[in-house]
Amino acid sequence: MQTAEAPARDMSLVWKxxxxxxxxxxxxxxxxxxxxxxxxxxxxxxxxxxxERHIPAxxxxxxxPEDRSRIGKGLLLFGNAGTGKTTTACAVLAAIxxxxxxxxxRILFVPFADYVQALIEHRNWRDLYQAxxxxxxxxxxxxxQKLLDKVLTWPLVVLDDMGKEHHTASGYAADxxxxxxxxxxxxxxxxxxxxxxxxxDWDKVYNASxxxxxxxxxxxxxxxxxxxRRA
Length: 231
What we know:
The chain has 231 residues and is α/β, with parallel strands linked by helices.
């Protein structure tokens, strides 16, 4: 007697929770038909070596790989507009989620400008609640707190469009990025960054020490070629 095959799991809630743009839901690395071979090799290697990059908080010495060079190491995808940086980053998120189910495969997509804005709004709503006891303000800052906690603690986070956030004389955005990327790397939480800025220009956008640190925290992946949005 033949039995009906179980329907494929609807992953839409997974992609929604991860805040992946709808255009990229479920698209894996295999779907990137115009990806340059060297980039494909790099991102496929990233997925294959995930257990050597992300070390869970409850790990023991037995979980630490003999080669520790990949621990916490993410990717920096940089290039001109339209070269597939965001698409590639989302494909890696999908691959990690599908190949590593459970806590190790928790993923999140966040434009960096949105993260900076969320920090500001969280502080404003928190201050309003503490000053007035307004329940709506409490709900707002608690919701933002959940997002901020995910960015800090989830195994794999994409910070999209680095360098497009608003910069002020105080250097707030640069300080936020510095603390975030260093904290995630220190806790063996790889981060994927996408940016139009070349690595050699990061000292102008952030600071010289961050430019140096990125070479330790990320594999630098140039994305070149024509604008795929116009092709």
